Amino acid sequence: MKLLLVEDDQHLGDLIKQDLVESGFTVDLATDGKSGEFMGFTEDYDIIVLDLGLSKLLGLDILKMWRLNGLNTPVLILTNQDNWYHRVDSFKAGADDYLGKPFRTEALLSRLNGMNKSDKGDSQIAQYSTAGVESFGLYLNEDNKTVTNDHVVHDLTPIEYMLLKLFLSNPNVLLTKSRLIESLYEMDTDPDSNVLEVYISRLRQKIGKHRIVTRRSQGYIFKDSI
Q: Could you say which of 1.10.10.10, 3.10.350.10, 3.60.130.10, 1.50.10.10 is the CATH number of the domain covering 132-222?
C-alpha cells in the first residue's frame, strides 16, 4: 500500500515512516504543507496521513483544497490538536478518520488497515461477495467495508461501518446516543456527541437520509422501510 505522510516534525516523521515501512507500507514523507499538498495532487496514493499544524500551509486547508478539487483519497488526520472542535472540523472538511497524538503504532496501523479498500469510489457498480449482509435494500460488504445502495458502492470509514452494522442489527429500535458513543469509544475514538452527529450525517448521505431518524435528546432509529 502506498501512503503519503505529511508531518513537519522531521524526527517524528522519520520514526513514523520507519514503523510504517517495517509494516509493509511504501511511504513518501512531506515535511511541510506546501509540498504535502503538491504530492497529494500529483502522486497516486492509497491513503494520506495528514498533520493539522503544518508549516507553510495548514493541514485543514490542504484537506479542503484536495476535496474541492476532487481528490477522494482516504485521509487520516494525525495531530496533537485532539479535541472535539478539531475533530468535527476535520470530518466536515472530508477526513475519513482521526487519531490524536501521542498514539501507539498499533493504533495507527489498525486505522490504516481499516481504511484500506480494495474498491474505491462511490460510482463503482456493486460487486457482491459472500462475506456480507444484505437487508433493507442495502448490501454491507464485510470484506472491503463498503455499502451498496441502489447499485452504487460507497466506501465506509471504520466508524461508519460499525455504526451501520449496529443499525442493521437493530431495525426500528431506538439506539441512544450513549450506546452509540460507547461503541465509538471501544474503537479508541474520543466519545463526543458532536463527532457522532458528523458520522451520522455522512452515513445518511450514503444510505439515504430517510433511513436514520433522529429522536431529539434521545438517539436514532434505523427504519427498515420508507
A: 1.10.10.10
